[in-house]
Design brief:
Helix content: 10-25%
Pfam family, one: Hus1
Strand order of the largest sheet: 10-6-2-3-4-18-17-16-11
Structural class: alpha+beta
InterPro entries: HUS1, HUS1/Mec3
Largest sheet: 9 strands, antiparallel
Distance between the termini: 42 Å
CATH class of the largest domain: Alpha Beta
Radius of gyration: 21 Å
Number of domains: 2
Family: Belongs to the HUS1 family.
CATH architecture of the largest domain: Box
CATH topology of the largest domain: Proliferating Cell Nuclear Antigen
GO biological process, one term: meiotic DNA integrity checkpoint signaling
Number of helices: 6
Protein name: Checkpoint protein
Shape: globular
Strand content: 35-45%
Length: 279
C-alpha cells in the first residue's frame, strides 16, 4: 500500500486545515479512506443506529497538486486508516503560511500518516516540520463499517440561513433545555424551538428556498406549508455549529420526520455531512 499527496496553494492548505478542524470537533477518532479519486473522513467503527454520524469528502483534484496511491490490491484499490482526529489537526494547523503540506503513509516502528509542513524563513531558506501520526490500517473485514452512510429520502430539504446566525441562536437557546425542535417545510421556511416547564422560545426563518431536487420530488397534492419536524439533542446540534470551520457555498438541512436531521455543507469539491438521530 502506498499513499502520498501534496498541497501547494496557501488557499487550499487553509481549506484542508479547516476541514481537519471540523473533523476533530465532530469525531474524536476518525477513519481516513484513501481512494484513487478522493479522500474521505468518517466516524470510526461500527456506529450505533442512534449515534450521530460524520462523513466528509475531498475530491482529488480539489486541493492536491500531487496525489498518488496504491491500495491493498488492483481489485480493492483503497486504504482505510484509523487515527485520532485531534492529532491530525494539531499537525496541520500551523501550516497556514507554509509553502506546502504533504501527507504520506509511512512505516516507522508502526504505520504512520506522516505530515510534512514546509515553512519559509525570513532568510529565504526553508525548513520542514514533520509529524508522524500513528495510524491503524484497517483490515478489509472492517471496511463495511466505514462506508458512506445511507440516508433515506428525506421528507423536506431547505437551505440553511447564515451559519453564524444559526450558531448564535442555537448557543443561546441551548441554555434553556436539553432538546431542540427543528422543523421546515417545502415553502422555504424553517423554525428552531425549545420548550421547558417554564419557558418556550422559537426562532423563525423565511424565504430560505428549497433545493431543486426536493421540489421535483414533491407530490402535487402535498401541502407546501406543512411543517416536518424532528427533536434532536441540543448538544449534538451545538457541536456541529461550533465545530464546522469551512465557509460553505451551499448549506442544506434535510429532515426525515421524527427520525433524522441531516446537515450538508459544500465548499467547491469539499463536502461535509452530519447526521443527528431523533431524540
Amino acid at each position: 500500500m502506498k499513499f502520498r499527496a501534496k498541497i501547494s496553494s496557501k488557499g487550499f492548505i487553509e481549506v484542508f486545515i479547516q476541514l481537519s478542524g471540523t473533523v476533530a470537533k465532530l469525531a474524536k477518532v476518525c477513519v481516513l479512506r484513501v481512494c484513487p479519486d478522493k479522500l474521505c473522513f468518517s466516524s470510526a467503527g461500527s456506529t450505533p443506529v442512534r449515534a450521530d454520524r460524520l462523513w466528509c469528502e475531498v475530491g482529488r483534484g480539489a486541493l492536491f497538486r500531487q496525489f498518488h496511491m496504491e491500495g491493498v490490491s488492483e481489485e480493492l484499490n483503497e486504504i482505510y486508516l484509523e487515527l485520532t482526529s485531534e492529532h491530525l489537526f494539531r499537525a496541520v494547523k500551523n501550516a497556514r503560511n507554509a509553502a506546502s503540506l504533504k501527507l504520506q503513509l509511512t512505516k516507522k516502528r508502526r504505520p504512520c500518516l506522516t505530515v510534512a509542513v514546509e515553512l519559509a524563513s525570513c532568510t529565504g531558506h526553508t525548513r520542514v516540520v514533520v509529524h508522524d501520526l500513528p495510524v491503524r490500517v484497517l483490515p478489509r473485514i472492517l471496511w463495511k463499517d466505514c462506508l458512506k452512510p445511507r440516508v433515506r429520502a428525506c421528507d423536506v430539504s431547505v437551505y440553511l440561513p447564515a451559519l453564524k446566525t444559526l450558531k448564535s441562536i442555537v448557543e443561546k437557546m441551548a441554555n434553556m433545555g436539553d432538546y431542540m425542535l427543528v422543523e421546515a417545510n417545502r415553502n422555504g421556511q424553517m423554525n428552531l424551538s425549545i420548550e421547558t416547564d417554564t419557558v418556550s422560545i422559537k426562532s423563525y426563518f423565511k424565504n430560505l428556498g428549497n433545493p431543486p431536487e426536493s421540489t421535483l420530488a414533491t407530490p402535487q397534492n402535498r401541502d407546501q406549508e406543512r411543517m416536518v419536524q424532528v427533536w434532536v439533542d441540543k448538544r449534538k446540534l451545538l457541536q456541529f455549529f461550533e465545530g464546522q470551520q469551512i465557509n460553505p457555498t451551499m448549506a442544506v438541512c434535510n429532515i426525515l420526520s421524527n427520525t433524522l436531521l441531516h446537515l450538508v455543507l459544500v465548499h467547491e469539491d469539499v463536502s461535509i455531512q452530519y447526521s443527528i438521530p431523533a431524540s
